[in-house]
Amino acid sequence: MTFNELTKLLEVEGFEETAAELHGIICGRLAGGERLHGDKLRNALLASLHSEEELIDNALPSLSRLYQQSLAGLTDPGFAFKPLLPGEETPLAERVEAMAQWTQGFLDGLADSGLSGETLFSDDAANALGDIAAIAQAGFDGDGENEDEVDFAELEEYLRVAAILIFSELASPDDIGPATSTTLH
Fold first, then answer.
1. CB–CB of 159/81 below 8 Å?
2. What is the rounded distance in angstroms from the CA atom of residue 57 to the CA atom of residue 64?
3. Domain ranges across the chain
């Protein structure tokens, strides 16, 4: 599901959450160790979202696909995961706002999963969590020049890697899959 597809779904259904925020919530819950299927996903969404139960029920098939897409991205051995954000055709100020919404959603999802800062195993993951919290406060006061675009791209890449790091720190071996080894003969 693309950012634009999710945005349209949420607008049609009348959700209070933005596409970036909702994807962040789902990824945060995943990073916090939750694996949600069927009614567990529905109940988690009811607990995390401000939107009405009927809206969530109407959109549940699409939200289930988004959940599966997010889990697949976070567990991909090629590190294919990306936060769901608007594309380059969107003005930079709106992309920065969406990034702040995604990071706040991610933090909310982590909190809803029961994760606390003490749960993280490494200093790197704890630092990444602190950086994500700082990005959640991001604003835009630039003029949209190339330098601003480069800064945004670097933040987006950092956010992608930080989310993968936190997820992998807390993931079970079943989430990551069997380790591959290379043997020299």
1. no
2. 11
3. 3-173
Q: Which of 163, 170, 34 is nearest to 105 (CA)?
A: 163
Q: What is the pTM of this model?
A: 0.87
Phi, psi dihedrals of residue 75, rounded to the nearest 5°: -95, 0
Q: Which two tokens stand for residue 113?
A: 């999963």
Question: For the CA atoms of 159, 6, 97, 84, what is the dihedral angle to 10 degrees?
Answer: 10
In our burial notation (b when 16+ CB lie closer than 10 A, e otherwise), range 33-55 reads bbebeeeebbebbeebbebeeeb
> Tens digit of pLDDT for each residue in 96-110?
999 999 999 999 999
Q: Quick one: residue 144, left, alpha or beta (phi over 0 = left, psi -120 to 50 = alpha)? A: left
Classify domain 3-173 at the CATH superfamily level: YgfB uncharacterised protein family PF03695 (1.20.120.740)
Model confidence at 94, pLDDT cuts 50, 70, 90, reads very high
Residue 116 near residue 162, CB atoms below 8 Å = no
Q: How many CA atoms lie within 13 A of 160 on its CB side?
A: 16
